[in-house]
Design goal:
It is built from 15 helices and 8 strands. The protein starts with 16 loop residues before the first helix and ends in a 12-residue tail after the last helix. Strand 7 (286-289) and strand 8 form a beta hairpin. Strands 6-5-4-3-2-1-7-8 form an 8-stranded mixed sheet. The chain is of the alpha/beta class. The longest helix has 16 residues, at 219-234. It has a domain at 47-244 and 282-324: Aldolase class I (TIM Barrel), CATH 3.20.20. The protein has helices at residues 17-26, 34-40, 83-94, 114-124, 138-141, 148-154, 168-175, 179-192, 219-234, 250-259, 262-271, 275-278, 299-303, 321-325, 336-339, and strands spanning 53-57, 100-104, 129-134, 158-162, 204-208, 240-243, 286-289, 295-296.
Length: 351
């Protein structure tokens, strides 16, 4: 039995990034380093296959405070992408082969430059896939954002909406009282204007996160459960369900520490390591842009402040598709979260 790490912070206090990195790298829990694991399975070094997706974090501010949030987003966060940094992103899109842009946060809609940014991305890639990750509740709880669904539809934006369960009790426990009902109202409205409806050209995709210390169920099986329950109970429809493993970072990491379950959870991830998932890791096709323009291999490396390895460009203003294509990807113990079972990415299961 391995001794649990002693690092501990209150649930409402972010764990310093440096402490998270030290904890993940120095607490072995009987688990081999991830870099040696991928070497053992013939997947090292980890390199990109292509650069398809630019994932842009517009800031960490959010109207919710979710227990599983790996970004540690909340109403008190002030990190926010500025228009000049957004312009660097637009320049990168215009001067590359990227045709998919994934806008995330926090709640990305709360960035005051959000609408300007969306309109200009659409101008840059008229036929590209633009995704916005939404917690849904802003559409229902604030007059300021009530017209956003029509704005997103006008710009042909696909919505990826967080709904970590299809029951009120679980959602409210993870995200706050009343969140489930606000989410259901928002989903109904999105259906009404064409999102998630058969033969529509705008997609409504949902995201599931486990509520406990477990891997997600098989994605298609869970999607069918969601589809039946939401249709039968609320007359709600959607396109796809994405299952995402809870990453041992930030707020969820603190939950693991408080409950004494850190090593148990890390062992679960490592025990279910799947080398086949490594082939499809999102870091192999995606570049993550932080709110300040810093470049990362993935959204999770961004949260740990693990920048790209030189000679790859370190900031979006230095974007070079060729140099990014030829980089070596930075890995750590948290990568077990993306390679367990059927694998996990921001677009759901990998297998």
């Amino acid at each position: 039995m391995h001794e649990q790490p002693s690092l501990h912070y209150r649930r409402d206090t972010p764990i310093p990034v440096g402490s998270q990195v030290k904890l993940l790298e120095e607490t072995d829990c009987g688990i081999p380093p991830f870099r040696s694991k991928i070497s053992e399975s013939g997947n090292a070094p980890l390199n990109p296959t292509r650069i398809d997706i630019l994932q842009i974090n517009t800031g960490y501010i959010c109207n919710l405070f979710c227990s599983h949030c790996h970004v540690d987003a909340g109403p008190d966060r002030r990190e926010m992408m500025t228009r000049p940094t957004m312009q660097h992103c637009l320049n990168a899109i215009a001067n590359s082969n990227i045709k998919t842009v994934d806008i995330t946060g926090g709640a990305p809609e709360m960035n005051p430059e959000f609408r300007w940014f969306i309109e200009n991305i659409r101008t840059s890639i008229p036929d590209g896939n633009i995704m916005v990750r939404s917690n849904l509740t802003l559409f229902e709880t604030s007059e300021k954002y009530r017209d956003l669904p029509k704005f997103l539809k006008k710009n042909r934006i696909n919505i990826i909406a967080s709904l970590p369960c299809y029951t009120r009790e679980t959602v409210d426990q993870m995200r706050g009282k009343g969140v489930f009902d606000h989410s259901i109202k928002a989903l109904k409205h999105l259906n009404k204007i064409g999102y998630g409806i058969e033969n529509s050209d705008i997609e409504l995709n949902l995201v599931y996160n486990p509520s406990g210390l477990a891997l997600p169920e098989e994605q298609l099986l869970l999607e069918n459960k969601y589809r039946k329950h939401l249709a039968d109970e609320y007359d709600i429809f959607f396109n796809n369900l994405y299952t995402i493993t809870n990453m041992p970072l930030s707020r969820f990491l603190n939950n693991l520490l408080e409950s004494g379950q850190y090593c148990h959870y890390m062992s679960l991830l490592a025990k279910n390591y799947n080398p086949l998932a490594v082939n499809n890791l999102m870091c192999r096709t995606t570049i993550s842009v932080g709110w300040d323009g810093t470049l990362y291999d993935c959204d999770f490396n961004q949260m740990l402040h693990l920048p790209l390895r030189k000679p790859a460009p370190l900031h979006i203003s230095e974007f070079s598709e060729q140099k990014l294509q030829n980089r070596t990807i930075t890995v750590g113990q948290h990568c077990y979260g993306c390679t367990a079972g059927a694998g996990s990415s921001c677009q759901g299961a990998l297998l």
